[in-house]
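Our preliminary data section would be incomplete without showing what the modeling component actually yields. Below, a chain of 498 amino acids is followed by its predicted structure, encoded as tokens that our downstream tools consume directly.
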Amino acid sequence: MSDKNINNLSLNSLFTIFFTISIIFNLAPPSAFAEPLLSIEKNEAVGLFRFVSGLCGAGQTSKMNIAAYAEMYENKDEDKDKVHVENFKKIFEELPKSFDLFPDRELPPSRKFKSYTELLYYYAAAARDLRQFEFSIYAMMPFDYADKLVACLQHFKPIYQKIHCKPTDRLLDDYLKRTRNSDFIKQLQRFYGADSKCPEIKVIIVPVYISKKLYDKYNKSMSACSVNYGNLQIIEVLFTGDKFKDPYDVIVHELCHFYYDLSSEIEKTVKKLTGSNSINGKFCARIINEALATSIGNGYFGATDLNTNWYEDEAIDKYAKSLFPCVKKYMDSNITINEKFNEEILNIFNKTFIDAQNNLSFLLYDIHVISDAISTRNIFKEINSFFYCNGYQSSGTIDSPKMLENFKRHKDYTTVFVTNRAGLNSLKAYKLEGVETLIKDKFTGPAVYFNYDKIQKCNYLIFICKTVDELKALLNKLSAARIIQPSKLISINSGLKK
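Predicted structure:
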């Protein structure tokens, strides 16, 4: 299979992949019952793939997972590790990031795109063991890439087992034997108004062992990193010695995302929020998914103390806590979200965030990156190190018709342009309010400019820089401010100015 074939995988090809999985792994056909089977288990293939992808910077995992590996520095073969890390990075730099399932339709990203990594995790979750996962990898990429990926997994397998599996196996096995009540699934279905015929929801627990040395070092900032892939949930659990926190609230949190994406009521809510003339409505729509999941998982089911952090992002944490009384009322009364709920969540948002329109936590939450100066991968990585963000990326010259078309299609997102001083003239094609004035400005050195275009009704930031280090310096300055005024230029050399 060539790179060209991979990048042009169609919906039919994707369907064939899933059909093949169902045959190879003998997955059960969809059933007619409304409540799916909830299975909670461990899976070495999922845990190992997550460990290695995080280690290589090609996927999400908690910093504790990486810190545990770094602690073993004196015990590992550095040169061999580096070879496998570089091979892994190259594979995932060259393979497609995602598949556009419906290129000719405007749909929410969660329905329109499937990430390449997500498909690999489904393969891993369906595999009985690591060998079966490795067999399946050859269906997903060119054979030479598969050879290198399998070699990488085999190399890091004993390291992963030593760090995370052997110290946690007994505790995790005991935990998985417990009987669990899955009634909360019905409550989530009712709240979101989402009735799926999905036969099974699979939760994979990924153990992350924390030594006493690491515990003492990171005690105040230890956190796990979990992810929702629809009916597949990957939940990291931190084990400190022989202790760990029951991940029940995290499981509920991730399942909320699954039913959120299935809910026609949520679709109406988001459409109303984004279709209004209120900028706050658009910002509310950006974080309502995560805020509801946090309020329900951590608050309603987890009964977490309001004085503790429910979520690592300050804005989502604050909004989730503000939503809690409203969420509790609906959950206690078994009420499905409705028109009144839409009004309530926006009113709560407006009261909670008076300065939302200029708050970088909202401006950078959903972004569309267009760059001709720095790779979009590096831009997302650096922004994510200062702010919680997700979104689209468009690589190519800023003045190309394709980039302009992408901009018009994603105006609900904050557009982040990254270019050098000479490239500013290319932005004239976007006809954005304030750009002409910015071009004439005699600022020196790296700078960032923010504005809201009232005619096109879109927020945008322009980073004028040449290197990742300059971008990082600008983001550091924005992070310290958190609030930014329209028509303002922040320059590393001159500070804040009109």
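Confidence is low (pLDDT under 50) at residues 1-12, 14-33. The first strand starts at residue 37 and ends at 41. Preliminary results of this kind motivate Aim 1 of the renewal.
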